[in-house]
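Structure in, sequence out. Go:
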């Protein structure tokens, strides 16, 4: 894999750390800025909404820009708003910086996803996509716990400074001109957003995006409640929670890596996903099965997510500017909606395991969505012309 792909993955790692790290910084942040914990937690929702809105808007805005300058611009803006966030004493300003950070993060991913595939031969595009997305899983495994430890030791502002510092090496390397033998084909001068939007209306692509959103919804509905399940249902001490989350994250990293090196068969994997979440719910009272199943579900969920992103890019060769944006929107819609749905369902029950049954239901809908799309596609192929 080209060195530049690893540079992009480093930037994605820093951005993923920023997206998820606030979950461990809320108490300190709320106390320092004199706001309620609920208001501080709202910064995470602001980031998710910014990702969903920002991806298509930023991809459309940068559709006619050369990719390296676009990536450098998004990354420079990301660094700047984190510096402002680390310096501010005003919650409203911090809220604005989080929303802007999410928008430029979405723009970076929307450009980086198709760019990663253009840097390698067609046979290696799945691996290139997996390498890029491994930055997100590494953020869950390493970045978020490290951010929480840094925030605990030196305050929440230190975590913001660390994210800005992590982006600087990537920004410097993105700004360097690409070697002649590693330059991807130039973007066509006559980019047509209308033509790209038309290409994105294909039924197989819409089914892939819907399935990706549902799979990611199931993933984060369960992941968001793993800590509560471990302490309130399984009876584990709070000290065991980081290990459980790390097991999920390690499985996710292995799943992304495997998806880039092997061809994942979607129907069996999609069928296994709801079964795995149901088994996790059924055995959630037992520590060892909970740890093992968390790792297994992390691997399967992220392998599926990576495969669906790769399929999105493959199905939309006529939409090189917007395909990555719509993949980003699908994944972040699921990541935002899944925990909200799980929260809504658990408030009406006496056990946090309801969140895992919510994951089961979302994964089952993903399987049904995919199966229905495949049947419809088969019927169209078999219809007389």
């Amino acid at each position: 894999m080209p060195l530049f792909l690893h540079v992009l993955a480093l930037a994605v790692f820093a951005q993923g750390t920023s997206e998820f790290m606030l979950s461990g910084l809320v108490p300190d942040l709320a106390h320092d800025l004199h706001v309620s914990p609920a208001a501080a937690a709202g910064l995470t929702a602001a980031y998710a909404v910014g990702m969903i809105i920002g991806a298509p808007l930023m991809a459309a805005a940068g559709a006619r820009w050369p990719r390296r300058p676009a990536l450098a611009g998004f990354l420079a803006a990301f660094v700047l708003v984190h510096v402002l966030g680390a310096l501010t004493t005003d919650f409203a300003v911090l809220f604005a910086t989080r929303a802007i950070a999410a928008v430029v993060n979405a723009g970076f991913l929307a450009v980086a996803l198709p760019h990663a595939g253009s840097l390698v031969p067609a046979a290696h595009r799945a691996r290139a996509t997996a390498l890029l997305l491994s930055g997100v899983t590494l953020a869950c495994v390493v970045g978020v716990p490290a951010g929480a430890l840094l925030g605990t030791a030196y305050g929440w502002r230190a975590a913001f400074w660390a994210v800005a510092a992590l982006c600087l090496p990537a920004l410097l390397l993105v700004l360097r001109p690409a070697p002649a033998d590693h330059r991807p084909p130039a973007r066509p001068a006559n980019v047509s957003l209308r033509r790209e939007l038309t290409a994105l209306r294909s039924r197989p692509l819409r089914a892939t995006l819907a399935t990706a959103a549902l799979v990611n919804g199931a993933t984060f509905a369960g992941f968001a409640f793993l800590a509560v399940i471990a302490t309130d249902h399984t009876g584990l001490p709070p000290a065991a929670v980081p290990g459980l989350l790390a097991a999920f994250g390690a499985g996710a990293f292995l799943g992304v890596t495997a998806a880039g090196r092997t061809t994942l068969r979607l129907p069996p994997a999609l069928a296994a996903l709801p079964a795995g979440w149901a088994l996790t719910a059924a055995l959630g009272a037992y520590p060892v099965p909970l740890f093992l199943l968390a790792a297994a579900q992390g691997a399967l969920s992220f392998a599926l997510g990576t495969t669906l992103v790769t399929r999105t890019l493959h199905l939309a060769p006529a939409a090189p500017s917007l395909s990555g944006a719509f993949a980003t929107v699908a994944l972040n819609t699921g990541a935002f909606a899944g925990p909200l749905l799980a929260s809504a369902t658990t408030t009406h029950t006496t056990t946090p395991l309801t969140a895992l049954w919510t994951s089961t239901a979302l994964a089952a809908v993903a399987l049904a969505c995919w199966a229905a799309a495949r049947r419809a596609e088969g019927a169209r192929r078999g219809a007389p012309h």
